[in-house]
Amino acid sequence: MSQLNVLLLHPDPLTRQSLRARLSGVEFLRVLGEAVSAFEALEMLEHIPYGVIVTGVALEGEADGFELAQMLSGRKHKPALVFIAEDEGPAFTAFEMGATDYLLWPVNEERFEKTVERLRQFRAHYKEIPVPAHWNDPDAEVDEEATVRVRLGEDEEDRFLKALSQAWEYTSQARQVDIEKLAVTMDGRTLLIPYNQVVFIEAYEDYSYVHTANQKFLTSYRLKNLEDRLRMFRFFRVHRKYLVNLDMVTEIASLPGSNFMLRTAGKTRIELPISRRRVAELKKMLGL
């Protein structure tokens, strides 16, 4: 039986050490990394095909375990998530977000065995992307319907990748402009938020929070990409961390120290330092 790679995600090193000891005796699991924040975990997922993430609810940084689950919900090969916590209060939320299990920590051996059994059942249907045998074995038989790997020269490869990138960018932009909605994932569902319901967007490392009047959604979009995409819909980059829907702005007020505050429609208030040059440009766009 092939093993599932396990990532231990928890801010407490003693908890990670205890988890590693518990999992070392499970033949189909292999602990292959530790992290303390959701974004460290996402970085590691880019390089290692983890089949299981054992995570705390509270993590270092701004994103917690539930926000990590939200970011992973749209993945085709989504790993099993086992939450560990000191109380059972958030358990319902964890299972709503697709958790394989939720453990009160520390956990006794009998309860831990139930988690192992659930992961064994998960392993039975979990499929990693297979590597075609003929990539490593030139003598292997090749199915006529299989994908053929074509070797390109260095110059040909560069031209091909550039053309592919341009084509993808063009088609992506065309799709985005057509629907005038922003796709976000929440609780395993994909929601389409109309641009005119977005109040502002906040950069967070390589991700961003999309704020509406009543909710915020952690997304995998970079703020720069959203700025380019939403500029024609009257979104303005007022700060390196914020992109604001100008149709939601109701007031620009001066603050001490040559700073300015933007107040938006509803109860949402954003207070940002804006250079005088940016303020002039903003007022011009608003017709003030």
TrEMBL record:
SUPFAM superfamilies (alphabetical): CheY-like
Pfam family, one: LytTR
Every Response regulatory domain range: 5-120
This protein's UniProt keywords: DNA-binding
InterPro entries in alphabetical order: CheY-like_superfamily (IPR011006), LytR-like (IPR046947), LytTR_DNA-bd_dom (IPR007492), Sig_transdc_resp-reg_receiver (IPR001789)
Domain of life (superkingdom): Bacteria
Domain spans labelled HTH LytTR-type: 182-288
UniProt keyword Hydrolase present: no
GO molecular-function term, one example from the UniProt record: DNA binding
Listed name of the protein: DNA-binding LytR/AlgR family response regulator
Source organism per UniProt: Desulfobaculum xiamenense
